[in-house]
Amino acid sequence: MTRSITLKRRTLVAGLGLLSAASIIGRSANAGPVKSTGESADMTAAMPQVSQFKLGSLKFTVVRDGANVLEKPWETFGSNQRPETVQALLAENFLPTDKLLNTYAPAVIDTGKDVVLVDTGFGAAMRGKGAGMLLDGLKAAGYSPDQITAVALTHMHGDHIGGLMENGAPTFPNARYFGGQVEYDFWTDKAREGTPGEGNQKSVMANVVPIADRMTFLKEGDQIVSGMTAMLAPGHTPGHMVFHVESDGEQLVMTGDAANHYVLSLQRPDWEVRFDMDKAQAARTRNRIFDMIAKDRIAFLGYHMPFPAVGFLEKKDIGFRYVPKTYQFDL
Ligand SMILES: [Zn+2]
């Protein structure tokens, strides 16, 4: 589905010329003039990518909210390792050793009754700066913001909650909201003021607090909609959760930020990650959640996995081999 949507859109862009193409892709065109030929990097950056697949009777739509380049990967992943060790693992996996590409993958689960959005991307704060393309992606897939009936948050970092509000009003006016109780309590606690968490607290105040009166606060084992269950997976943040989704015997776990790089965090789950607030707890959680996924041979959607962010895991002596999805859900 990724391919077919991309192709269709390219055909449209080529066929309709600059102005119409810009109106089709809306705000995402603001990165510059839309090129009508070729597959330039500009075009990839400016156009939202969307991937759709079915899990049982559920329709998933994954949107690439955007991407950013992270320099010196060893300062973020394997921050307790020697830089050469991190670079060697990247090289072994055919990846550049001096920088990496971080992507963002909010997703919609259409149950037929509910349209559930999981995480919201950066929103307006990063629009035109390489991210904030969720709404354009949803539009390309045929969803308008008022069709979203539920929004569930794995945790409350800016790249997951930034899209909740738009021009001072809720982006998804008809949605009810689901977020972790522990997570919400942590970020809204006055104790965060004057700490490294203060910046993110401001983001929670601006994006989550205004819709908190419509939020159901989740604990371990709570159901969001039928077949979708929240599980505590702390470490990255104190109240981080993953969502287990099941339909007609098929399963997928939305793992949020339990692992944030398909090689560095999955092949070496014990390595420290700068973004993890409690690094030891995050490593324990990573091993627990991904052990389960590997053992049960079920799919997972990782918010920062390479787009479309869905894959499987093979357990190795240390860590896991990431196997990106291909046509498993199409047959
Ligand atoms: Zn994240």
Automatic annotation (TrEMBL):
InterPro entries: MBL_superfamily_lactonases, Metallo-B-lactamas, RibonucZ/Hydroxyglut_hydro
CDD domains: OPHC2-like_MBL-fold (cd07720)
Domain (Metallo-beta-lactamase) ranges: 103-304
Keyword list, A-Z: Hydrolase, Metal-binding, Signal, Zinc
GO molecular function, one term: metal ion binding
Pfam family, one: Lactamase_B
Signal peptide residues on this chain, from the entry's feature table: 1-31
Family recorded in the similarity comment: Belongs to the metallo-beta-lactamase superfamily.
This protein's name: MBL fold metallo-hydrolase
Organism: Rhizobium tubonense
Taxonomic lineage of the native organism: Bacteria, Pseudomonadati, Pseudomonadota, Alphaproteobacteria, Hyphomicrobiales
